[in-house]
Amino acid sequence: MTIFIYQADAFTDQLFGGNPAAICPLDEWLPDEMMQKIALENNLAETAFFVKNDNGYLLRWFTPELEIDLCGHATLATAHILFTELGYTGDTINFDTVKAGTLVVKREGDKYSMDFPSRPPFAADLPEGLVAALGGAQPKEVLRSRDYFLVYDSEDDIQNMQPDHSLLAKINTMGVIVTAPGKDVDFVSRFFAPAAGIPEDPVTGSAHCNLIPYWAGKLNKNVLHAYQISARKGELWCELKGDRVIMAGKTVTYLRGSIEV
User: Fold this and answer.
1) In the chain, what are the domain boundaries?
2) Identical fold at 2-117+247-260 and 122-242?
3) Which end of the chain is more exposed for a tag (fewer CB within 10 A), N or C?
4) Domain 2-117+247-260 carries which CATH code?
5) E strand or H helix at 162, and its extent?
6) Residue in 168, 105, 97, 180 with CA at minimum distance from that of residue 132
7) What is the pLDDT of residues 70-113, one digit of tens each?
8) Could you tell me how many helices (H) and strands (E) the chain has, helices first?
9) Distance separating the N- and C-terminal Cα atoms of the chain
10) What does the pLDDT read at residue 197?
């Protein structure tokens, strides 16, 4: 069987920046085991698979290790491929998902905006070993949603962090978000998820479902500008709208091809 595959860099206008995602259009679902093997073979943070339905498209995401409940950059990349490679003519795409409901992506000039659920983090206890795994810097606030969420004083604290990924993988969590006020933007962040096969995710849309409501409250503003300051770096234009968050970003195509399974 031949399956078309694309790869795009999301939340950037520069090739080799942002977060790379693989995108596989399907006529019908492959067995879960096969999709997981393809994601492992691609060895990217996420591989997205989608199938057309009456509302738009059904969408699923796989890391190299497991199927994930929500992924922003691969959703952005999937919309980009539909708009630029697969002849989608509208300005809005609906993606139906099992665990995150319907996600809406709109084309707005040179950006795509995504409507995602807001997931405000709540106060949590600091798990044993997490500070050591992150290099020893003490956070000023510890919260949690799906992932642990640690707040620091400055962008330099986030930029200089050198986590031990083998220790991080032992923490009972999908991932760890670290964040601080930004120098040139409202806030910066990084995201680590070695237990999911992603030592550091370059740009993480799902993490911004937590970050946007948190910083909107702290900064008393609903429209925010953010950088995820991984080595590849990503830029997001964000807005809190009630129980939803809007994330906008740019995307560039890297690869067009096919795979044989």
Assistant:
1) 2-117+247-260, 122-242
2) yes
3) N
4) 3.10.310.10
5) none
6) 168
7) 999 999 999 999 999 999 999 999 999 998 999 999 999 999 99
8) 6, 18
9) 5
10) 86
CATH code that applies to domain 122-242: 3.10.310.10
Phi and psi angles of residue 223, each rounded to the nearest 5 degrees, phi first: -105, 125
Cα(120)–Cα(134) distance, integer angstroms = 22
CB within 8 Å of 144: residues ≥ 6 apart: 121, 122, 124, 173
Supply the residues annotated as catalytic: 46
- SS3 letters across 234-247: EEEEEEEECCEEEE
Residue among 198, 190, 192 nearest 233 (CA): 190
Of residues 78 and 194, more confidence is placed in 78
Q: Which SS3 state, helix, strand or coil, does residue 132 take?
A: helix
The CA distance from 186 to 176, in Å, is 20
One-letter amino acid at 242 equals G
Percent above pLDDT 90 for the chain: 96
Query: How much is the pTM?
Result: 0.93
